[in-house]
Amino acid sequence: QVQLVESGGGLVQAGGSLRLSCAASGRTFSNYAMAWFRQAPGKEREFVATISWTGGSTYYADSVKGRFTISRDNAKNMVYLQMNSLKSEDTAVYYCAADQNFMAGRTTPNLNFDFWGQGTQVTVSS
């Protein structure tokens, strides 16, 4: 099992920034690709960003590309999501996820992650 705990969510004005953190424990962190997903009220959960086992490769949803940055620190068992230029449509519960698979295809992210955190709320006021 991999346990994931997110933090860093909150209320921010449109145009502002937040950094989400996810602490992992339980198994060898560097064996897992990591990702962030989000779910807005009344909507299905959607993919946001993913990062490979060593952090050498990343992939983003078009809606956040150029504004969000995913990173990881394998020495600390942490993954981060830096969110800049936030918009009201970024309001959602953000979830950290772990899986041994990184991508499902060359340009298709893995959407079937095995382990999930409880989520952290991000609210962007306009």
Topology readout:
Elements: E1 3-7, E2 10-13, E3 18-25, E4 33-39, E5 46-51, E6 58-60, E7 68-73, E8 78-83, E9 92-99, E10 103-105, E11 108-109, E12 115-116, E13 120-125
Concise description?
With 126 residues, the protein is an all-beta fold. It has no helices and 13 strands.
Question: Beta-sheet strand percentage?
Answer: over 45%
Backbone structural class: mainly beta
Largest sheet: 7 strands, mixed
Q: How many alpha or pi helices?
A: 0
* Fraction of residues in H or I helices: under 10%
Overall pLDDT:
96
Q: Nearest-angstrom radius of gyration?
A: 13 Å
Unreliable runs = none
What does this structure look like?
By secondary structure, the chain is mostly beta strands. 0% of the residues lie in helices and 52% in strands. It has no helices and 13 strands. β4 and β5 (46-51) form a beta hairpin. The chain is globular, with a radius of gyration of 13 Å. The N and C termini lie far apart (39 Å). The model has no long low-confidence stretch (mean pLDDT 96).
What are the defining features of this structure?
126 residues, mainly beta, 7-stranded mixed β-sheet, 4-stranded antiparallel β-sheet, 13 strands, 0% helix
